[in-house]
Amino acid sequence: MKSLFLTLALVATLAAQMTPDQKAVLTNVESLAAAIQKGDGATIASLMAEDLMYSHSNAKLENKAEAVAAMVKAKNRLVYEPAPTITIHGTTATVRGFVTTTSMTDGKPVTLKLNILQVWSKIGPKWLLVARQATRLIPQ
């Protein structure tokens, strides 16, 4: 609980220093993580572009429908530590961060540490996820 409080305090501090577009993207990143944990397919899909390219740390590439289905099934818990870095380039945003993800596989919890790169694009008034690449961090 203490870790969650510290993470939320850090995110709130960083958000105060962000541009409106960075805040909007951060809100979507957080909404996506919450929707994945709940297995909320409608919300997950609403945050993704139709031509999404979603790449896993095992090199598996999924389109939007495949990614949504996998996320609904897995209900992963995602924790960004520290908060992700968001850079805006016109109507494109890059989000880079370290994520600890926990899911159930064969009835057992599986935890992975990942380096995540997300690309969000402002399509009309909304920021949508257009690409995601993950690299598994190897314990040293």
Describe the protein in words.
- By secondary structure, the protein is of the alpha+beta class.
- It has one domain (2-136): Nuclear Transport Factor 2, Chain: A (Roll).
- Helix content is 36%, strand content 43%.
- The protein has 4 helices and 7 strands; from the N terminus they run αααββαβββββ.
- Strands 1, 2, 3, 4, 5, 6 and 7 form a 7-stranded mixed beta sheet that branches.
- The longest helix has 19 residues, at 20-38.
- It is globular.
- It starts with a helix and ends with a strand.
- The relative contact order is 0.17.
- The mean pLDDT is 91.
Helix content: 25-40%
Largest sheet: 7 strands, mixed
CATH architecture: Roll
Tell me the radius of gyration: 15 Å
Shape, please? globular
Average pLDDT: 91
Tell me the count of domains: 1
Strand content: 35-45%
Query: At the first level of CATH, what is the class?
Result: Alpha Beta
Q: Tally the beta strands.
A: 7
User: What's the number of helices?
Assistant: 4
Global structural class = alpha+beta
Secondary-structure element string: HHHEEHEEEEE
| CATH fold name | Nuclear Transport Factor 2, Chain: A
For the termini, the CA-CA separation is 27 Å
Low-confidence stretches: none
